[in-house]
Amino acid sequence: MVPPQDTIVALVTGATGGIGRAVCLRLAREGVAVVAAGRDREKLAEVVEELEGLGGVAWSVEIDLADPASIAAGAAEARELSAAIGPITWLVNNAGIAISAPLVEKDREAAGDLYERHMDVNFHGARHLFESLLPGMLRAERGAMINVASSAGLFGYAYVAAYCASKHALVGYTRAAALELAKKGVRANAVCPHYVDSPMTEASVRRVVETTGKSEAEAREFFAAQNPGGRLVTPEEVADAVWELLRSESNGRVVELDGSGSMKDA
After folding, report:
1. Average confidence (pLDDT) over 52-66
2. What is the DSSP string of the chain?
3. Among the options 115, 157, 159, 163, which is catalytic?
4. Active site residue 115
5. What domains sit in the chain, N to C, each tagged with a CATH number?
6. For a surface tag, which of 12, 60, 115, 257 has the fewest beta carbons within 10 Å of its beta carbon?
């Protein structure tokens, strides 16, 4: 399929996970060319095949957000792959890590490393990638970044202080970037879902099962009950929110998804 010359090109990180895959599918269905980014080449190839099966245009690039050199190389490769269509003017920073631990670890060196890992991936990785792609957006005089943060970027949660800190940083960066770039044609928004029915939540479910003896169903019910809406947010709901922000003129919005089916500004 040869796309029109005015086709928008979007790069999506964490493309092989629940939310990332849903975002890629939604964008492809809307006629957006997608660069699927992640760390697993085989899984990325599967996502690209799925997108092409929908009639979409897609490529894959390997990017490790914890490694600035990998980010720079991946961004350069993505630009080269999409060059025949146009610049990458949409970025969805979705990839992230979440590791639970006590606020104060007995091993202070390990505790410090935990904070650094979260900041390196969830905040600095997203920031470095955006800043790698920003010059192309500025030249095109149009661009949009969506940071998939978390309700942990709005509130605090026990045993995930490092995760909360990194997501708060990402939300703050989003708001600052939106103000600074507003007159240059580049927009920045964030989506903050509560617990999502995703592999990340499944990992949390397994930890609860292992540490408490609860059944898998009981553990899932526990996390669903933490959401104000009383159920887990679906990856498709996150993808819908991402699409609505990308397609609109929204700038500086931080949208909360709480399982109620609503999309409200935080």
Report:
1. 97
2. ----TT--EEEESSTTSHHHHHHHHHHHHTT-EEEEEES-HHHHHHHHHHHHHTT--EEEEE--TT-HHHHHHHHHHHHHHHTTT--EEEEEE---------SS-SSHHHHHHHHHHHIIIIIIIHHHHHHHHHHHHHHHT-EEEEEE--GGGTS--TT-HHHHHHHHHHHHHHHHHHHHHGGGTEEEEEEEESSBSSHHHHHHHHHHHHHH---HHHHHHHHHHHSTTSSPBPHHHHHHHHHHHHHS---S-EEEE-SSS--EE-
3. 163
4. no
5. 9-194+234-265 (3.40.50.720), 196-232 (no CATH)
6. 115
